[in-house]
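If you are new to this repository, start here. Below is one unmodified record pulled from the training split, so you can see the exact layout before writing a loader.
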Amino acid sequence: MFDIGFLELVIIAVISLVVLGPERLPVAIKTTALWVSKIKRSFQGIRAEIERELNVDEIRREIHNSAVMDELKRTREDLQRTRENLDQDISDMRKSVNTSFDAQTDAQTDAQTDAQTQESKHAEGQSTAVEPDVSPKAASPDTVSQDTVSQDKKPSGHS
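And here is the target side for that same chain:
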C-alpha cells in the first residue's frame, strides 16, 4: 500500500517517542492499529459488495471461457489446415504413383507391342522366303530339316 522502508519506520518511531513521550506512545500505537484495521475491514467490505454487485466472478469465468474457446477455435483451424495439407500431399502422392505406374504400364505395353510387331515381321519374312522357293531344285533349310526329320522317323531295319 505505502512504500515505506525500515529506515522510514525507525524515523517515525523516534519522532513519535519524542513528541508523545514514553507513557502515551503504547496507547497511541494501539489506537492507530485499531483505526488501520477498521479501515482495512471497511475497504474489504466495500470491495466484496462491489464484486457481488458486478458479479466479478462470473465475468472472470466468462472471460476465461472465452479465452479457452478462442484457443480451441485456433487449434481447430490449425488442425483443419494441417488436415488439408495432408490431404493435398496424399493426393499428390497418389497422382505421382499413378503417373509412374501408368508410365511403367505404357512402357510394358509398348515393349509387348514392339515384340509382337517384330514377331509378326519375322513370321512374315519367313513365309515370304518360303513361298518363292517352292521349286524342287532349291531346298530351303526348312525343307531340308523337314526331310531329315521325316527320314529319321522312318523305321530302320536295324532293331
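Two things worth knowing about this chain: Helices lie at 6-54, 56-130, 141-153. Residues 135 and 143 are 11 Å apart (CA to CA).
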